[in-house]
Design goal:
By secondary structure, the chain is of the alpha/beta class. It has helices spanning 62-75, 104-112, 121-134, 154-157, 163-169, 178-191, 246-254, 258-267, 270-275, 281-289, 293-313, 327-332, 334-343, 353-357, 382-396; strands spanning 5-11, 16-21, 28-35, 43-48, 51-56, 82-89, 100-101, 140-144, 200-206, 210-216, 219-223, 322-326, 374-377. The two termini are 40 Å apart. The protein binds adenosine monophosphate.
Length: 404
């Protein structure tokens, strides 16, 4: 019996993703998603090989959905296959610079970071607590979205606001999607046979939430998201960068409260806000092809903003080995990749249209012309990265305590 499988839990604000993964082969014994939690439509779906199943769990909370998942793992005799549990945690603040074995000190420290991610860290903590309750004998590891960016230099992470706000309240840029960036950058280094100590990459993680990062010699040196995931690129429903005075302007001119402006910037903006149609890129591409002008404008603004910020990130690199596209849009949209790279001719990037049209599938992900810096499509796998971290930390069995 294999004892090296890792249960990965990713508790979002209204969802819970789970998987049991062999960290060495990447094989998924089961993967699934409980979604619309705390809603009458709550449900859970899972996949074992190519067999898919689902059931309704009306009004299920994180707690009851976890209980159902654990019961499912028991029914399938998978519980005894699990050697450790890895948890995605969104915000580690400045306390966590790497993935960490969980103990009560670590739980307190994650709680301390709650004010930085009020929607996500509490959900992540519920996942940790229910897993400890059910599997007190198994080691558990926290893997943070923010920790990869903790290497960023001050010039990249400080806002030009009074320094005391950083000193007293840790207000700074943190960056997110770090687990995805670690995974795809390691893959790119392997695929391109780059020197792990000397390489320079731009990575764009483009999904419903989107960001980009400059990665030099395996370390993040700049990224587009900030104190929260709202900063940076145009996203599905998030605005990305706007003039911060918008808060004042909307309050004075339109009577908006802080909460209304935050809601508008996080939930009603981005692709959805501009198009008035959808936050989903597939829907917008379809509408654009049917002549919908607002869908076209939303795509153009998405592309323009992304290319502009990628060019800005390149200033931290000196030279460019490769540009990596990942996330639902980055992995699947030849239309977006081609429009972005067209705008990045200044970096010497040129796509091979045929390779781009099949998402690099026949070329190890490579979609660029041979005489240009490489452009790659790499499918991200955050769950596998969490499983790999959990395996390596629990195998060395050394507790890494939060650093400060
Ligand atoms: P994610 O958050 O990584 O799951 O990515 C979700 C986004 O990827 C949505 O905007 C989808 O419309 C987009 N996406 C997925 N497949 C495609 C596709 N074939 N073409 C364009 N966009 C896609």
């Amino acid at each position: 019996m294999t004892q090296h499988n890792i249960l990965v839990l990713n508790c979002g604000s209204s969802s819970l993703k789970f998987a049991v993964i062999n960290p060495e082969s990447g094989h998924e014994l089961i993967s699934g998603l409980a979604e619309r939690l705390d809603d009458p439509q709550a449900s859970i779906s899972w996949k074992i090989g190519s067999n898919k199943s689902s059931l309704l769990l009306p009004d299920a909370s994180h707690q009851s959905a976890s209980d159902r998942i654990f019961q499912l793992l028991g029914d399938l005799n998978l519980e005894q296959e699990i050697s450790a549990i890895g948890h995605r945690v969104v915000h580690g603040g400045e306390l966590f610079k790497q993935s960490t074995l969980i103990d009560s000190t670590v739980i307190d420290a994650i709680r301390q970071c709650q004010n930085l991610a009020p929607l996500h860290n509490p959900a992540n903590l519920i996942g940790i607590e229910v897993a400890i309750e059910r599997y007190p004998h198994l080691p558990q590891v926290a893997v943070f979205d923010t920790s990869f960016h903790q290497d960023m230099p001050k010039q990249a992470f400080l806002y030009a606001i009074p320094y005391t706000l950083y000193q007293q309240h840790a207000i700074r840029r943190y960056g997110f999607h770090g687990t995805s960036y670690r995974f795809v950058s390691q893959q790119a280094i392997e695929i391109l046979n780059l020197d792990p100590a000397q390489n320079s990459l731009l990575c764009a993680h483009l999904g419903n939430g989107s960001s980009a990062a400059a990665i030099l010699n395996g370390k993040s040196v700049d990224t587009t998201m900030g104190l929260t995931p709202l900063e940076g690129l145009v996203m599905g429903t998030r605005s990305g960068n706007v003039d911060p005075n918008l808060y004042d302007f909307l309050a004075e001119q339109c009577g908006y409260t802080l909460q209304q402006t935050s809601h508008m910037l996080n939930k009603e903006s981005g692709l959805l806000g501009i198009s008035g149609l959808s936050n989903d890129m597939r829907t917008l591409e379809q509408a654009e092809s049917e002549g919908n002008e607002q869908a076209k404008m939303a795509i153009e603004i998405f592309v323009f903003t992304l290319a502009k910020q990628l060019a800005g990130l390149a200033t931290s690199l000196g030279r460019l080995d490769a540009l990596v596209f990942t996330g639902g849009i980055g992995e699947n949209s030849a239309r977006i990749r081609s429009a972005v790279v067209e705008r990045l001719a200044i970096l010497g990037l040129f796509l091979d249209p045929l390779k781009n049209s099949n998402n690099g599938a026949d070329n190890n992900g490579v979609i660029s012309k041979p005489d240009s810096p490489t452009v790659l499509v790499i499918n991200t796998n955050e769950e596998l990265m969490i499983a790999m971290d959990t395996h390596s930390i629990t195998n060395t069995s050394s507790t890494i305590t939060p650093s400060h």
